[in-house]
Amino acid sequence: MRIAEIHIHKIDLPVKNGPYVMSGSEVHALDSTVVQIVTDSGLIGYGEVCPLGSNYQPQHALGARAALCELAPSLIQQEPLKIQVLNHLMDSVLEGHNYAKAAIDIALWDLLGKHHDVRVCDLLGGALTETVPSYYAIGVTTPENAAEIAVEKVAQGYRRLQIKIGGRPVEYDIETLTKVYEAIGTDAQIVADGNRGMLSKDVVLFSRACKDIPMAIEQACNSITELVSIRPQLAHPIYIDENSEDLSVVIEAAGKRLCDGFGLKLSRLGGISKLRTARDICAAQNIPHTCDDSWGGDIIAAACVHMGATVTAKLNEGVWIAEPYIDGHYDEDKPIKVEGGSIKVPTGPGLGVTPNPDKLGPAVHSF
Ligand code: 0XW
Ligand code: MG
After folding, report:
1. How many CA atoms does the CB half-sphere of 17 hold within 13 Å?
2. Going by CA atoms, what residue is nearest to atom 1 of ligand 1?
3. What is residue 224's predicted lDDT score, i.e. its pLDDT?
4. Residue 268 DSSP code
């Protein structure tokens, strides 16, 4: 089997009930890129990457499509089932740009599963569960509103809530987490996520003021250096998210125990192949982690769910998907969605989703 065609689609994803507010940005709509890899046998593999705007990470939608245009010609006529070989080929053609390569990697795993009539999670060693826990991210908002949403989401079945902090006087963050904890207690695990937006001094003040609230603090500061410098002063475990730019950072942070957990993103690391390795590194070091991505529709959601299904329960911090903030699905027959705080693992081969061509629209680039 050979790769015969590669098509790149641009899909606009308005934020439902938006904007989505984090310490450094407020997003009203996202620009997602879907990759279709068509083989000479007629099989089609789908991948997706959707940067969370252009300042959340060193990624942006136009950059993803430009990188994919740089990569696509070298992939034509290659053997799609040799995923590792093609990852090496991509690295030889283009340095970096893991987020764009991730879309290709995901499509190749989708093809591998379809070729063998096996689900991606089962290709990754087997699903340990048929429903994965999700979590809900409450954007930066007033203390009262955050508490109100927290109660609503716990009632819907979520057992982990991420409360966005940062980008404002730290007193507001302290009051917000205090109100949320008063409202839900330990009915759900609480993670306060600063999305790199806080000064180390404010994180120390925040942690000390909230010392009686059982929670983790995720990526509060911009760098690992800052996080490591204040960690001894904190009353809470710390998680690394945005700083885990690639496997080498995960290996170092896990090996040196620089954090107590990770927010891992599929596209940031480079796709399913790389997140599988990060999963195993975390398992070896007993470090809990999420299996997320920045944003995107059913394709990236399915990839995160398949990966999350293979993470042992005690290390599984949940699978975040953008579905609650998106109207509609690429595949209305087999949508990937959060129900009661959990997500069912798709049952079909590969990713288990078949995007409706009408939802993808015409390709913006074809090879
Ligand atoms: C909550 N997420 C996984 C979704 C958004 O992309 C941000 C991210 C995070 O944890 O920072
Ligand atoms: Mg995070």
Report:
1. 8
2. 137
3. 98
4. H
Q: Is 360 helix (H, G, I), strand (E, B) or coil?
A: helix
If you count them, how many residues does the chain have? Answer: 367
Residue 96 structure tokens = 């970096």
Q: Give residue-wise pLDDT tens across range 109-166.
A: 999 999 999 999 999 999 999 999 999 999 999 999 999 999 999 999 999 999 999 9
Q: How confident is the model at residue 32 (pLDDT cuts 50, 70, 90)?
A: very high
Assess whether 127 and 48 both reside in one domain.
no
Q: Per residue in 323-337, is it b (16+ CB within 10 Å) or e — as a string?
A: bbbbeebbbeebbbe
Domain CATH for 100 = 3.30.390.10
The total domain count for the chain is 2
**146 and 42 co-located in one domain:** no
Question: Which ligand sits nearest to residue 239's alpha carbon?
Answer: 2
Residue 217: φ, ψ to 5° = -115, 120
Residue 12: both structure tokens together: 């606009």
Q: Check pocket membership of 23 for ligand 1, CB cut-off 6 A.
A: no
By percentage, how much of the chain surpasses pLDDT 90? 100
pLDDT for res 352:
98
Q: How far is the CA of 177 from the centre of ligand 1 (A)?
A: 18
Report helix, strand or coil for 197. Answer: coil
227 occurs within a structural domain: yes
Q: What is the average pLDDT across 86-97?
A: 98
The closest-lying atom of ligand 1 relative to the alpha carbon of residue 290 is 3
For 136, phi then psi, to 5°, come to -110, 135
Residue nearest to ligand 1 atom 8, measured at CA: 294
Which residue's structure tokens are 């015409």? Answer: 362
| 110 part of a folded domain | yes
